[in-house]
Amino acid sequence: MSCSEDHTESVDCTVKPPVFLQIGDTKGDSARSGVCVVDVTLPYGKPINIEKITFKNYYTAYVTVRLLRRKAEKEGSTKWCTALTDLALMDNPHTDGGSQNYFSIHRRQMQVQPDHVESIRLILRQPSSAWRIFSLEDIRLFPHKELAPEKEVSDWLSDLIVVKQPPDLEGLPDPQTVSSSIQQMWALTEVMQANRTTASIGRFDVDGCYDINLLSLT
Amino acid sequence: MADKEKRRSAAVPSGMSAGKATKSDSDVEFLSQAGVGELLRGAILKMVEARSDDPIGFLADHFCNLASVTDSSPAGCGDEEQMNGGPVSACAQEQQHLNRALWHLRLAHHSQRSAFSNNVRVAYDLLNISACQSPVAEAPEGPDGSCSDDPIGAGVAGGGGVRGGLYTQTLQCLCSEGGVPASTSAPLLRRLHCQDHEVVPYDVFRHGVLTCAVFSDYIRQSQKLYAEVCCPHEGPASRALCMAVLGTLKEALETSTGCEPDCCVNANNKAYACVESNVKAIRYLEASAKISPNRLAQAMEGAQSRGPGGNMDAKEFENAAADLFITRVKVVF
Fold first, then answer.
1. Do both B275 and B176 map to the same domain?
2. pTM (2 decimals)?
3. Which GO terms describe its molecular function (chain B) (predicted)?
């Protein structure tokens, strides 16, 4: 049901500045490897279950999503796991198809359940030398909302199921037969109501009297 | 056939066998000339549609009806005597039309939806023909004097609708034939009736006829209900019990009243339409839960202990039940 996903707000998270991995010494060599890492951390003590991750691409070819999950609620250790490997954002890394598209990764697309997540690491790859600068913009996380529990069974429904102590029917008519007669009468009335017509005779009078506005003064 | 003809030509010398052959031959011819095959086929089809409990009575009525049709139509128009006795014969013919229309309406129960609708259509067409129509149609050069007696007026060639008085009469007959006493059906007829000068279109006619048919069933059911509620040996039923039982029906009707079929749904928004029908279904379920045997047992038990005293007789019960129905009938406007 798509309507349950609307109006969800993204969770507050901190997107760290992208770190470009480099080969060799950081100081000397400025050759880019075409790999960049973006960390997204959630406020301490507030792990979330992710519904989806949305972002706008900027010339990134492939993205890998890794999650830091806590084993159980509040206890247990945290562990990194890979949710998605090399999702292609661009058809061809050298051309600009998909280079500035909006993307959304849903929890269904992930290989693991993104629950109790504390931190997310997005590994961006752009093997083409055409695009030296690449990143993801406007990264947002949406929490997974449990579907609202079924509305409480209304009183009337529970009345049907729960048989309280059978009432004392001494001297009273049989409820089954009375009920079936009443049901027939109710059904007949409903039939009559369902067959109403909107056709009119075109009367002007209301309850036998004419509306004063219809009288013309000449 | 050839050998039969040979036998016929040889019939003069030899009597017996040839006589039988001619008889069967002329029988077949006679039957085909009279169109009996069609007659019987029509009768059987009508019977299958009506599925009446009394097949012999039904067939008798059917042929009676046909006889009156064939009698009236050729003879009725262009007749000197007919024209002279204008208003009287017009009245009589109207009554005849009314009787035939009522016969058609009695054929199918309102729950047999398509058969009932067909019959209503036929009845409407029958009543649509005014007394003046046949002379006008068949003898266009006929004197205008005959048309002046026509209540609708000469302008309604082809039948613009059923005359209000005739329609009201139809409803009255339907109610009384259905076993509803006149006093009980009076409030209903006040809501449905039409003035004599008004012309009733088909939709209104159908609605009125269906409502009366349903109402007669409803009253019969309420009479049955009263018989169930009151203990036969102890006279009239207790007022408290009757009120309690009718109270549950009223509650159920009020619960399901919210889902009227004429609330408009935006056709563009299918999701909304789906929600609307869900809401309707839930309301119906809720209403029907209020008249379940358990609820009724509780209501009756409660009534016994703390209801008003006194008794309620059958007539009052019937009127109270009828009232629940009639308040929900839309007034013809």
1. no
2. 0.56
3. microtubule binding
